[in-house]
Amino acid sequence: MKNKTSEYRYVILDYNGNCWLVQDNATQKTSGLPSMLDEGWVPVRETPFHTEGTVTPYVLILLERDGAGAGNDFGFA
């Protein structure tokens, strides 16, 4: 059995569906979570949060690709 190397990526998703990639201590707006899922990224863990001074809800999502991660059991772990 070959050992697969997984790639990991964090994204922030807001209540409107806007999505930002977290990379190199910065964020960059992306085309959205559905397109990332189509590219083979799989949600592994989700952490809800909000920024200080606002009530806008956000979710920090850890995504994995090409590994033996959680697979299709998307949900809060």
Name its key features.
single chain; mainly beta; 5 strands; five-stranded antiparallel sheet; disordered C terminus; 77 residues
In a nutshell, what does this entry contain?
With 77 residues, the chain is mostly beta strands. 8% of the residues lie in helices and 45% in strands.
Major sheet: size, sense and barrel closure?
5 strands, antiparallel
Radius of gyration: 13 Å
- How confident overall, as mean pLDDT? 83
Helical content class: under 10%
| H and E string | EEEHEE
Number of discrete helical segments = 1
Q: Trace the largest sheet across and list its strands.
A: 3-2-1-5-4
How much β-strand is present in the residues?
A: over 45%
The stretches of 5 or more residues where confidence is low (pLDDT under 50) are 69-77
Number of strands: 5
Q: What does the oligomeric state look like here?
A: single chain
Rough outline: elongated
Q: How is this fold's topology laid out?
A:
Elements: E1 7-14, E2 19-23, E3 26-29, H1 33-38, E4 42-50, E5 57-65
Antiparallel strand pairs: 1-2, 1-5, 2-3, 4-5
What does this structure look like?
- A five-stranded antiparallel β-sheet has the order 3-2-1-5-4.
- By secondary structure, it is mainly beta.
- Mean pLDDT is 83; it is low at 69-77.
- The protein is 8% helix and 45% strand.
- The protein is elongated and about 40 Å long.
- It contains one helix and five strands; from the N terminus they run βββαββ.
